[in-house]
Amino acid sequence: MAADRRGKAETLALRRRLLSDSCRLFYPEDPIKIVRGQGQYLYDEQGAEYLDCVNNVAHVGHCHPLVVRAAHEQNQVLNTNSRYLHDNIVDYAQRLSETLPEKLSVFYFLNSGSSKKGL
Questions:
Q1: Model confidence over 49-107: pLDDT tens digits?
Q2: Is 29 left (phi over 0), alpha (psi -120 to 50) or beta?
Q3: pLDDT digit string (tens) for 7-26?
Q4: pTM, entire model
């Protein structure tokens, strides 16, 4: 899946050329090039370890075996967005609604907190 490892400077130059300026980097003056995640940690290209408190994984961590297995099983069947009618999204919404007060029973699913900017 990943291309041959390239240096941080080359990756940064490609990103600046190929991605919109609206896709901002953390620490733009000297961005950290993350190459992998495991549990609650991210690792840069030099092997430095960072506690990940930002990247939407605080619940279970990166590469959690149960999440990886569930995603793999679902991807073998279907991987689509919520604009197609499919049972999984309503099954999940129904299970979630059973744990919440009735006034919190309508859902708008997003893939991250940053997705809500356009709402």
A1: 999 887 766 677 888 899 889 889 988 888 777 777 878 888 999 999 999 999 998 99
A2: alpha
A3: 999 999 999 999 888 888 88
A4: 0.62
Q: Which 8-state DSSP code applies to residue 104?
A: G
What DSSP letter does each residue of the chain carry, written as one string? -PPSP--HHHHHHHHHHHS-TTSPPSSTTS---EEEEEBTEEEETT--EEE-SSSS-TTT-BT-HHHHHHHHHHHHH----TTS--HHHHHHHHHHHTTS-GGG------SSGGGGGG-
Please list the residues that pair with 36 across neighbouring strands.
Answer: 43
- Sorted by sequence, the CB contacts under 8 Å of residue 90 that are 6+ apart come out as none
